[in-house]
Amino acid sequence: MRPELAADPGFRDRFRVAVETARTLSGAFLVPVADANADASVPWLVTEFTAGLPLRQAVDRHGALSEPALRVLADGLARALAALHAAGTVHGEVSPDSVLLTMDGPRITALGIVGATGSPAPSPTDDMFDLGSTVLFAASGGEPDTGTLPVSLREVIGGCLYPEPPDRPTAEQLVDYLRLQDLPALEGSWLPPAVTADMAAAAAAVGSASARGGRGLFPPPPVIAAGTGVSRRKLIIGLAGGAAVLGGSVAALAFSGDSSPAPGGRAGGSGSTARPASPSGGRSTSASSASPSSTDGPEAIVLAGPDAAKAWSGAGKHAPTCLEASDKVVMVVTDTATSFLDAATGKSVFPQLNTTNDFGTRSDRYPTAYADGVFYLLCDTPSQTGLLAAFDAASGKVKWAIEMAYVDPGGGSDAAAYMSKYVAVAGNTVYVCGNLLETSGSYSSESPTTGYIRAFNAATGKRLWQVKGTDINNVLVPPSGSHLLATSAVPGKKPGRVQMFDAGRKGARRWKVAVPDAAFYFSTGWPLTCYAAGLFLFAGGNGDTLFAVDAATGSEKWHQRFDSNSGDQVRIGTPFSSLDGATVYVPIGSDLAALATADGTLKWVARLEGASETGTSNMFNAASRLSGKSTQCSADTVFATDSAKTLWAIDAATGRARWKYRDPGQPDVGFLWTVGGDHVFIASHLTMTAIAAHGR
């Protein structure tokens, strides 16, 4: 230990406790503590010699690891952390410098040190983020680039890097995830010859005859206490939330050009008002659009408003995992039951149902929908899993429930598990969208994700049709009409693409448009596009341009490029529309711009100051905080949450705030909320709150 630490009165006690904990740990991928002395003039610790090479040194000298080696690395680190976490401790310093590569797998070193220095205590979720960063380092050759992750690891390692700690997988889940893929066992050394040669040289230099071997690459997984494991189905669906990373922070990093998982700079953020570019900068000159009168857009309206007045508030026994609302009823889903509340009073109106959803709503998952007097829910019951259920909003009774096939009926080498991301309704059809996780067959880092669209009759639940393919990463389902829009991309391989699927012809593929430099469309989950007044709207170009195309033909109607007053690069987020389709709203850093759907004319720009308070990249704020269900509309109000977890109600006509809502006691990940009629319904821990759109 560093000599100066010995002068810290509490250090020796903390070090002694940390060492005693480390002595009790065992595991094939842990470097054991051999001895220690907390009372020496300079405290010291000795670990068992391990013949190996530090991961950073191996990657710096020989480049990125292969896919099989990455899987061994991820599995070994997860098993090591599972043993640590099961013992009630954490590592806190998993990194390319604390991981050794040996002939029979990776080893984590530095046990017994973390926590002794008195630095802020890490958590198991911090360990999982560090694991993801370490595997990403090894996959990209030292310059973290999420596009280098192989398909077999893309979602689960992406899940480790998710910005919200509760959404990261546990170490046990990662081990199970890799085991359930059931890929062929490796033969021979898991590392390239150049790395093993370096290992032998290092071992010889300290008198070791050879690197240890013989235990095999995959020892039995750590024992998990009864009741703490996860089922195969829940594991895969739970880790589908890991795709939120690829659809959230990681996808954002790929979009913004930031190759590091660490927080990046802000483009077009606080202090740089986003505005339309000049006509020469790319504004459409088609007859349907009018060029702006000048290159300067309106000054951003810095949002300021009173705290919201609550219409009602009450506490329940279980924290909601999902919310959906009409103008009369609020459906509240927890991990134990589904309840229905009177939207006007918050009182229970129907008997509870035994349908549950453990994983709930996330940035790329939305398992509920409402349309025409019916609630829809992706759920489980005590006796069934993987259900799609419909509930009558007037009575709370089940209209129908179907158990969706969990494994793609293709079978054989093409067998794949359905991972449902969200449910949507258009007319008389209910759609379930998501992606497939292969359960057998080979993987390649060049393989794109396979997505799917499944259609069901809204009145009966009868299966109508389904399509799947690598050209389906996320799907936009407009509230009416038969045109669906899917986006896709393979980072570093193929440009982004938007493609229309004709629901009237059982999902037949129609027009498609390439979107250069739009690698963010490889994200699975919630739509990254928008529909308004017969137009599909999506980001393209360098991420600074909004395109509007005819939904039926794909022909461009107009496009609008944005820049910033500061000269920084602008990255726009996911657009969304007003209920009448006349206005489209575009997140641009910490700004929210309102444009006329007809021609792209800018109406107003509002600044959500909190959208840049976390210091994360501007693209992350735009794409993850102001997208999907973190932005919704009522008839005349726009609702948006910023990264400070403040909910703003914005007058759709003027761009000025009606009110703001923030709960000091809210969960770290923020609160759930949804719009029903002219009210917003918020779930924070056990508390449900209703607020009128106009605040009174």
Fold and architecture overview:
The protein is an alpha+beta fold and 696 residues long. It is built from eleven helices and 38 strands. Strands 6-27-26-25-24 form a five-stranded antiparallel beta sheet, with no helix packed on it. The longest helix has 20 residues, at 67-86. The protein is globular and about 75 Å long. It starts with 10 loop residues before the first helix and ends with a strand. Mean pLDDT is 77; it is low at 208-273, 278-295, 441-445 and 611-627.
Descriptive labels:
696 residues; alpha+beta; five-stranded mixed β-sheet; globular
Q: Summarize the main sheet.
A: 5 strands, antiparallel
Helix count from the secondary structure assignment = 11
Structural category:
alpha+beta
Output the radius of gyration: 26 Å
Instruction: Name the strands of the widest sheet in spatial order.
Output: 6-27-26-25-24
Low-confidence stretches: 208-273, 278-295, 441-445, 611-627
Oligomeric grouping of the chains: single chain
Strand content range: 25-35%
| Molecular shape | globular
Got a strand count? 38
Mean pLDDT level:
77
- What is the percent of helical residues? 10-25%
Q: State the separation between the terminal residues, measured CA to CA.
A: 61 Å
